[in-house]
Design brief:
The chain has about 400 residues and is α/β, with parallel strands linked by helices. It has helices spanning about 25-40, 60-70, 90-100, 120, 130-145, 185-195, 210-220, 245-255, 270-275, 280-295, 315-340, 350-355; strands spanning about 1-5, 45, 75-80, 80, 105-110, 150, 160, 175-180, 195-200, 235-240, 280, 300-305, 365, 380. The chain is built from twelve helices and 14 strands. Strands 1, 2, 3, 4, 5, 8, 9, 10, 11 and 12 form a ten-stranded parallel β-sheet that branches. A two-stranded antiparallel sheet has the order 6-7. A two-stranded antiparallel sheet has the order 13-14. Helix 7 (about 210-220) links the parallel strand 9 and strand 10. The radius of gyration is 22 Å and the shape is globular. Residues about 385-395 have low confidence and may be disordered.
Length: about 400
């Protein structure tokens, strides 16, 4: 099972000090948080995508490419990649490039996005968000698996003889998670392709997403990808940890109550009881996380948001440290001891390569110098470093 952290990249005033960090401060801080997560042995770091204030992460691949150079082993992901307002061609190219730079330590979570003004900024209509998500992912799925794509749809210009470059590392696309957005169509989409389904229940009551997770599991099996228990499920949440429970509640209260989304409407203790928000000692966070398994069944990825609500960098780094040294090691043992037989492990680039090739060498596409375009529909690549002999009537490039 994978454990890690995610950020939505918000820039929020610290209600204790009164300081609002600059964009530069927050960008530097998030890179340091990701580095620390790698150092303490967390498995995943994920960043959101936003194109409006008060957020900074408008280009996740640029940020994650920088973090890839600073880290050694942690998987780099997104807590949302907007499949609706981004061109799937650009997603295919950008994340394949990131996958190469990070030596395979990349996956991504697709989502529709719910910020109304963003859609027209990128030439789309939020009222068509669902068909956009379905059509765009169908194209992205093909772009990563077919060397040459001919395609015609409703939301972008057609493609004829198009090759997305670079090809995915080892000809194995990054693993895709579909973010839960309260619609069964997205659960069905994830199940149809055999992808992962991520229930980011940070903003919802306890077990709010269980019906959709159960639907996804049933449909995953229906489409022939395995048993319902083998479906790939991820859960999100928010954590704040201190050595003692009362210290955690006391330290976190001003950040929760000073945050406009939560603090003006909820008491901290009520929110802790009613939602997956985990505030307390390491043991209390462990116990609450184990309760997620009781509600959703065995799952493959658990991510926590630990840097929102204006929390200063030093406190965020302390949260990473406590997760990595006191919470996650215990959860690894407990989750493994309780895991039912036959449950799938979280996919990684290594497991996907082995599933595709076994002991054989992976494909490493090289441009074919005998082909100047893709109009014939043939692959523009060769699979060795020796140029093939041209066939009759085929000139050299």
């Amino acid at each position: 099972m994978q454990f890690g952290i995610f950020s939505v990249s918000d820039i929020t005033r610290d209600p204790v000090s009164g300081h609002t960090p600059s964009e530069a401060e927050r960008i530097d801080a998030i890179a340091r948080i990701a580095q620390r997560a790698d150092e303490v042995g967390l498995d995943v770091f994920a960043i959101g995508e936003h194109h409006n204030p008060p957020f900074f992460s408008s280009s996740p691949t640029t940020l994650l490419g920088h973090i890839a150079a600073l880290t050694q082993r942690i998987v780099l992901s997104t807590s949302v990649t907007l499949i609706t307002t981004n061109d799937p061609v650009k997603i295919a190219e950008d994340y394949a490039m990131l996958q190469h730079l990070a030596k395979g330590r990349v996956d991504l979570m697709l989502g529709r996005g719910n910020t109304v003004p963003v859609y027209p900024w990128f030439g789309q209509d939020i009222n068509k968000g669902l068909p956009l998500a379905l059509e765009h992912y169908n194209l992205l799925h093909r772009l990563w698996r077919e060397d040459v794509v001919n395609w015609d749809g409703s939301f972008r210009t057609p493609l004829q003889g198009f090759t997305s470059v670079p090809r995915p590392l080892d000809d194995v696309p990054p693993f895709v998670w579909h973010g839960a957005i309260r619609t069964p169509e997205i659960a069905e989409q994830a199940a149809y392709y055999g992808n992962g389904y991520f229930a980011n229940n940070i903003l919802a009551p306890n077990l709010h997403f269980r019906p959709l997770v159960e639907l996804y599991r049933r449909r995953f099996a229906h489409h022939g990808h395995g048993t319902p228990e083998q479906a790939i499920v991820g859960l999100g949440g928010h954590a704040f940890i201190a050595r003692r429970s009362q210290d955690a509640v006391g330290a976190f209260r001003p950040y929760f109550e000073g945050f406009p989304i939560y603090g003006t409407s909820y008491e901290l203790e009520d929110f802790m009881n009613a939602t997956p928000l985990s505030v307390g000692s390491p043991q209390e966070v462990i116990e609450k996380t184990l309760s997620f398994r009781e509600g959703f069944g065995d799952y493959q990825r658990q991510l926590w948001n630990i840097d929102a609500m204006g929390l200063p960098l030093e406190m965020a780094l302390e949260q990473v440290e406590l997760l990595g040294t006191e919470v996650v090691p215990v959860l690894r043992r407990e989750m493994e001891a309780r895991r039912m037989p036959g449950v799938a492990e979280a996919p990684t680039h290594g497991t996907l390569v082995r599933a595709k090739y076994g002991d054989a060498e992976p494909r490493r596409p090289r441009p074919n110098p005998n082909r100047g375009d893709n109009l014939t529909g043939a692959s523009p690549y060769q699979d060795s470093d020796r140029a093939p002999v041209p066939s009759a009537g085929e000139g050299r490039a």
